[in-house]
Amino acid sequence: MASSEFQPLQGMSDIGVPEIWLWQMIEQRARTLFSCYNYEELRTPSLEKLSVFKRSIGDTTDVVQKEMYSFIDRGGRELALRPEGTAGTIRHLAGRGEEGLNARVFYIAPMFRCERPQAGRKRQFHQVGVEATGVPNPLADAECIALQQHLLEEWGLTGSKIQISTRGELSDRQPVADGLRNALQPHLSDLCSDCQRRINENVLRVIDCKNKNCGKIVDQIPSPVDFMSEESRQYLDTVIHTLKKMGIEVELNPKLVRGLDYYVHTVWEITHGALGAQNAIAGGGRYEIALGKKGVPGVGFAMGMERVITSLESCGVTADQFVPSDGIWLISLGEKALIENMKIARKLREKGLRCGMDLEVKSMKAQMRKANKARVKKVIICGEDEMAKGILLVKDMNEGSQEELSLEDVIRDA
């Protein structure tokens, strides 16, 4: 077992070969697809003012109360490592005026939460997410869900399910809170201690509680949707109808509330059986985030890359399938050939080709082992005989064939 001196902090991981190949596939395909939907990349700082998350996510959420890495810096400022991507993104867009109120951006970035590490959950984890700002529109919500489903398909994930519900309009919040409190009051003594506190602080957290006994009580009372306006229910119906027209199946789950206070109207989660009891790999929803005097409406989603990878591997999608298999390896037979190959390598790399070589003279066998390990498509052998003839010996690693070519032919055919 490796010494703890060389291990990252608990709940955090190094990501290198071979698993990095799967991460690169996920990121590359995400960027390509987001471009098709007219989303632009945004990179915000990992460190923000604590107030950015308190105002956006909500003081009473578990993320703010229990999970954030927050501290006071030497200047006396309250700061936090971002626990999620939406708040910082909206902070940036709110500062761009009208342009930021009609934007489509995506991010691929690390997030931080001080929670107990478990399968697919790390203290430093990574999210792929999008945000589309704009006034509430059920068609925009449907398109966002469609994009998320499309991305999962691009990655090769099968067997996922989409659950959908609504948090209603802002005007629904008080009727929903009052209705749930009244329904839960007869069961107060049977709720867990957290939920007894949540009834007054944020009653929706009771609906979201993972305690089995609390779950049984929640199943006996009306859902939050039962206390909402007809307009809110109609908005959700339009989203679901639009998705069905697009060929995307969703399951209505009126007890789905999501864990952040900024949500209004549509909320959804995507689950996968490979993750066990905590089976959510992604979620999203429509929100209204107040920053200063500005209220920024939008819709978006975020997917935990570690949890996506666990689900992909259960579908047979593994890192080995994405090993780089192109490129060239240069083999040098002698000191003069080594210098010649340095010149050749530069020309090939200027062409944008992946090219490797040993930078000291080694045996042919040792250099071929390196070439095999690098999984290159071709090997170029250069020795004094080849230099005298003005040619290179080119070996195709897949077919096992070899031929003599000039440097110009090698560059042209590469």
CATH architecture of the largest domain: 2-Layer Sandwich
The number of distinct helices, counting runs of at least 4 residues, comes to 15
CATH topology of the largest domain: BirA Bifunctional Protein, domain 2
The parts where pLDDT drops under 50 for at least 5 residues are none
Kindly provide the name of the CATH class of the largest domain: Alpha Beta
The tally of structural domains comes to 2
Q: Main beta sheet: strand number and arrangement?
A: 8 strands, mixed
In total, how many beta strands? 16
Distance between the termini: 43 Å
What fraction of the residues are assigned to beta strands by DSSP? 15-25%
- Envelope shape: elongated
CATH superfamily of the largest domain: Bira Bifunctional Protein, Domain 2
Summarize the structure.
This protein has helices at 19-36, 50-57, 62-67, 86-94, 138-155, 173-184, 193-201, 204-207, 212-220, 230-245, 305-314, 335-350, 364-374, 384-389, 407-413; strands at residues 40-41, 47-49, 70-72, 78-81, 104-112, 124-133, 161-166, 251-252, 263-271, 280-291, 294-304, 328-333, 355-357, 378-383, 392-396, 402-405. The protein has 414 residues and is α+β, with helices and mostly antiparallel strands. Strands 1-5-6-11-10-9-7-8 form an eight-stranded mixed sheet, sandwiched between helices. A five-stranded mixed sheet has the order 13-12-14-15-16, with helices on both faces.
Write the layout of secondary structure elements.
Blueprint: H1 19-36, E1 40-41, E2 47-49, H2 50-57, H3 62-67, E3 70-72, E4 78-81, H4 86-94, E5 104-112, E6 124-133, H5 138-155, E7 161-166, H6 173-184, H7 193-201, H8 204-207, H9 212-220, H10 230-245, E8 251-252, E9 263-271, E10 280-291, E11 294-304, H11 305-314, E12 328-333, H12 335-350, E13 355-357, H13 364-374, E14 378-383, H14 384-389, E15 392-396, E16 402-405, H15 407-413
Parallel strand pairs: 1-5, 7-8, 12-13, 12-14
Antiparallel strand pairs: 2-4, 3-4, 5-6, 6-11, 7-9, 9-10, 10-11, 14-15, 15-16
Helix pairs in contact: 1-5, 5-10
